[in-house]
Design goal:
mainly beta, heme binding, 12% helix, 6 helices, 36% strand, four-stranded antiparallel sheet, Cyt_c-like_dom, Cytochrome c, heme, Cytochrome Bc1 Complex, Chain D, domain 2, signal, single chain
């Protein structure tokens, strides 16, 4: 028995710990969501015009990506660790982990970019946009993008197939399969198409429609199976090869078998609608990006919310402030900022000793140049003003996601909490 217990313990210790907590930091709905192949990092894009790179083991923000003029609708992580964001402004930004500005900017689309995809060999990036086109961008060198034209409306999704061909879907109700050269094969489906994901290992496509149905489609356009997901349009789809997750504009999240779309369970929680979905490789975890700016974790096999009960738990950095109304307001900031000395910096500087401190004055944090030029001393009044009118208006050039606190009583509670907790 002892030998058995030791064996079980060894297995448990060999499994990497994953901190089951919500990811909070965005100031608007989470529109784009991706996870690295090793399951260690996530990248999100939001209507607040920022992307955030997250460390999933600690549920902390590692990097805030501010560049786009408008919503960040698509996000993806490259195999070499670089991050890619696609925006409402029609631009694609490629980021390294240690820079505050994009390493490379891809321009050419004339409408909002809404989807990104990476080829299996990591050499090509695909983009879909509301200018009626998709593009294939070589990631090495300066070779011009290949422009895929043919859709007669918004192109809402793009994906690389195992064969190397590219699939696109559009509001014109067509699925188009593009070979490496030549025209696309076109299959018309019964409804405008909103969301697309490849089912890994099967070379099948999971396609969400405006009629609230999910369709499993072969590369030749044959519909293998379909299931009703929601009475409203399906707006997000993801697959880990074993299962498919799909969400509707007003409904909950459906989990279905990837083989034949047999329903397995439904995930119901706050933050509807869910705009983005991503499975964590090597686990049963599903990340969902909600309308309330929160990224939640779920066990896709059991339907359990992995964020339940985390607040106030032993790993909660705000556990000692349970019941403090200001701490509740501050919880949206905890992913990017620390409170105590020795905790270091995250995506944002530590707030320890903030009251009375000149703006952009910490020596161990890389502030944006525009932010460092402001002449502000942090006081209860200036902190309150920051969240009354928003960081973009009060400190132009900041990397901070747009966050406003509309109620004066909540701003007062936050300021009083910071005065106590950051001394």
């Amino acid at each position: 028995m002892i030998r058995l217990l030791l064996s079980v313990l060894a297995v448990i210790l060999a499994v990497p710990a994953i901190h089951a907590a919500e990811l909070r930091g965005h100031g608007g709905p989470v529109r784009g969501l991706a996870v690295s192949p090793d399951g260690a990092s996530a990248l999100s894009g939001s209507f607040d015009s920022t992307g955030i790179r997250w460390a999933l083991a600690t549920s902390s923000a590692e990097q805030v990506l501010r560049f786009h003029d408008g919503a960040v609708n698509a996000a993806i992580l490259l195999t070499d660790g670089r991050a890619v964001t696609g925006g409402e402004d029609g631009r694609i930004a490629i980021w390294t982990a240690d820079h505050t500005r994009p390493e490379r900017i891809l321009e050419g689309h004339q409408g909002p970019i809404v989807a990104l995809s990476l080829s299996a060999d990591g050499q090509f990036l695909g983009s879909a946009a509301w200018d009626g086109t998709a593009r294939i961008w070589p990631l090495a060198g300066e070779t011009p993008a290949r422009i895929l034209e043919g859709h007669t409306g918004n192109v809402n999704g793009i994906a690389f197939l195992q064969s190397g061909e590219v699939a696109t879907i559009g509001y014109d109700a067509t699925l188009r399969i593009w070979p490496k050269t030549g025209p696309a094969r076109v299959q018309t489906l019964p409804t405008p198409l909103n969301a697309l994901a490849v089912v890994p290992g099967a070379d099948m496509l999971a396609i969400g429609g405006a009629d609230g149905r999910l369709r499993l489609v072969r590369a030749d356009g044959t519909i293998e199976a379909e299931a009703e997901i929601s009475p409203t349009p399906v707006i997000a789809v993801a697959s880990d090869g074993r299962r498919i997750a799909a969400s509707g504009l007003r409904g909950a999240i459906a989990i279905l078998a990837a083989e034949d779309l047999t329903p397995e369970r439904t995930l119901v929680g706050p933050g509807l609608p869910v705009w983005s979905l991503a499975f964590v490789p090597g686990t049963d975890q599903l990340l969902t990006g909600g309308n309330d700016a929160v990224i939640r974790r779920w066990n896709a096999s059991t339907g359990a919310s992995l964020g339940s009960g985390i607040a106030g738990g032993p790993s909660d950095p705000l556990a000692e402030y349970a019941g403090d109304p200001g701490a509740s307001v501050y919880r949206a900031c905890v992913a990017c900022h620390t409170l105590q000395p020795g905790e270091g910096v995250r995506a944002g500087p530590t707030l320890h000793g903030i009251m009375g401190r000149p703006i952009a004055s910490l020596p161990d944090y890389d502030y944006s140049a525009a932010f460092a030029n402001h002449d502000i001393i942090w006081t209860p009044e200036t902190v309150a003003r920051l969240f009354e009118i928003g960081p973009h208006a009060y400190t132009p050039g900041t990397k901070m996601p747009e966050q406003t606190i509309n109620r004066a009583v909540d701003r007062k509670a936050l300021v009083e909490f910071l005065e106590r907790a950051t001394r």
